[in-house]
Amino acid sequence: MSSEFNNLNNIDLKKIPDASNFKFGIVVSKWNREITDNLLKGCIDLLKSKGALDININILKVPGSFELIYGCKKMQQEDVNAIIAIGSVIRGETKHFDFICNATSNGIKDLNLSGNIPVIFCVLTDENMEQAIDRSGGKFGNKGTESAIAAIEMAAI
């Protein structure tokens, strides 16, 4: 659903489970770092607000969104309850955007089907930098925060 109609303003954070007994892996792309740093901050802030300890948050940085797949696969071998894949792909003038978006989403989907640790998809696929800013702490909230909520809920299953 569009961020415009579905954001944190509509979520009752009191209903999100306590995260103090969970361990989280976060795999974050260094590409479009301004955006991914904001997503990472929103993610960590929410996890900590729900009780997650610093020692139980393992962060792995990878070059780009395509590399999130391998990073998450390696993270599934760690002692974590859920993994969050954070990336940002902004459309350019070539089909590269389509290839990266499709491969990344399918790769993360495949990890969820074949692995035993849930992988949360927090990869922004935006038309331009303004959209990415709006969804990484701007007027539409922070998708990193929303992904942390999903990770907690999946870890609780």
Shape, per Cα inertia axes: globular
Specify the biggest β-sheet: 4 strands, parallel
Oligomer: single chain
Give a count of the beta strands, DSSP E runs of length 2 or more: 6
Strand content: 15-25%
Helix-and-strand structural type? alpha/beta
Number of helices: 5
CATH homologous superfamily classification: Lumazine/riboflavin synthase
Question: In angstroms, what separates the terminal alpha carbons?
Answer: 23 Å
Query: What do the pLDDT scores average to?
Result: 93
What is the level 1 CATH name? Answer: Alpha Beta
| Rg from alpha-carbon coordinates | 15 Å
CATH fold-level label: Rossmann fold
Strand arrangement in the largest pleated sheet: 2-1-3-4
Low-confidence residue ranges = none
Quickly count the domains. 1
Reading the helices and strands in chain order gives EHEHEHEHEEH
Percent helix among the residues? Answer: 40-55%
Describe, in short, the structure shown.
With 157 residues, this protein is an alpha/beta fold. 41% of the residues lie in helices and 22% in strands.
